[in-house]
Design brief:
This protein is an all-alpha fold. 70% of the residues lie in helices and 0% in strands. The chain has 2 domains: 4-97; 137-264, Globin-like (Orthogonal Bundle). This is Acidic fibroblast growth factor intracellular-binding protein.
C-alpha cells in the first residue's frame, strides 16, 4: 500500500517527538533529531508532518482513534495502532522527557499506552466512548482501593505465604521487609490518578515508585511478575473489595500496572 509506505515511521525518530508540541518551532529542530538518530532530515520532516496531520485529523473525533486513523488514512492495523498511541500520548500530555524516562524507547511507551487505551477509557457500550478520553468514573473509583491499607497485614501474610516456596531466601526476606513500601507505592499511584498532574506523570511514577525500588532490591523480572500476579489475586481472594465496581476498577488498574512493569523492568 502506497499510503502505508508513506506513513511508515522509525521508532527512534518518533521517540524524539513524544511529549513535545507538534509546532513549527519543533519542526525547525529536526536537524538535531536527524543528527541524533542518524535518520535523513527529509525522512524526519516527513514523519513529523505525518504525525501532525494524523493528530489534527482525529483528535476531536468520537469512537476508536485507531479505527479512525485506519479508515481515514488507509493504514494497516499495526501502523494505525502506532499512530493511535502517539495521538493518545499527546492528548493525555503524558510526561515522557524527564531524565529518568530518557532511556525509554517508543516501544517501551507503546505497550503500556495501548493497555491504558484498552483498559482505562470509556467502554464501547458507553455514550462517552472514545479512546482518547479516560473514564473519569473509573479514576474516581480508584480512590477506594485504599481499603487495601486497612487489610495490609492480612494481605502481606497471604502474599508471603504463597510466594515463599517460589522465592530465594534473599528475595523472600526483602519481600517481608519491603511489602509495605511496594504495596503503598502501587496503591498511592492509583489513589491520585484522578488528579491531572498525577495522571500526566504516570510513567515517571511507575519508574520512580515501583520499578526503581525493585531494582535496588535486586529482584529479577520473574520474581517481580510473580509478585504482581499473587498480589493482585490475593487482594481479590481476601474479599477486601465489597463493592463490585471497586473490584473491577482494581483489576483494570492492575492490568496496566502489570503491562507497564513487564515492559519497563
Amino acid at each position: 500500500m502506497i499510503s502505508s509506505r508513506y506513513y511508515e515511521i522509525d521508532d527512534i525518530v518518533i521517540r524524539e517527538f513524544l511529549g513535545k508540541k507538534l509546532s513549527s518551532k519543533h519542526r525547525k529542530d529536526l536537524d538535531e533529531v536527524s543528527e541524533k538518530t542518524s535518520i535523513a532530515i527529509k525522512s524526519c520532516r516527513r514523519q513529523f508532518d505525518n504525525v501532525k496531520r494524523v493528530f489534527k485529523a482525529v483528535e476531536e473525533l468520537q469512537g476508536s482513534v485507531i479505527q479512525n486513523i485506519s479508515s481515514i488514512f488507509l493504514l494497516s492495523e499495526d501502523l494505525a495502532k502506532k499512530y493511535g498511541v502517539i495521538v493518545f500520548i499527546a492528548c493525555m500530555r503524558f510526561e515522557t522527557s524527564k531524565r529518568k524516562l530518557q532511556m525509554l524507547t517508543f516501544p517501551d511507551f507503546y505497550e503500556p499506552t495501548l493497555c491504558i487505551m484498552n483498559k482505562w477509557t470509556y467502554p464501547k457500550s458507553s455514550p462517552e466512548f472514545g479512546d482518547t478520553d479516560l473514564d473519569r468514573e473509573f479514576l474516581l473509583e480508584l480512590r477506594e482501593v485504599r481499603v487495601l491499607l486497612d487489610k495490609e497485614k492480612d494481605h502481606k501474610h497471604i502474599v508471603c505465604q504463597k510466594l515463599k516456596p517460589e522465592f530465594l531466601e534473599k528475595t523472600y526476606n526483602s519481600l517481608e521487609v519491603n511489602f509495605r513500601l511496594l504495596s503503598r507505592a502501587i496503591i498511592g499511584i492509583a489513589y491520585n490518578l484522578h488528579h491531572n498532574r498525577d495522571l500526566r506523570g504516570f510513567f515517571l511514577e511507575v519508574v520512580e515508585r515501583i520499578i526503581d525500588p525493585w531494582r535496588l532490591l535486586g529482584w529479577n523480572k520473574t520474581d517481580v511478575m510473580n509478585f504482581l500476579k499473587v498480589y493482585i489475586s490475593c487482594a481479590i481472594e481476601l474479599d477486601i473489595f465489597q463493592d463490585a465496581e471497586v473490584k473491577k476498577a482494581w483489576e483494570r488498574y492492575m492490568d496496566v500496572i502489570t503491562t507497564s512493569v513487564k515492559q519497563l523492568y
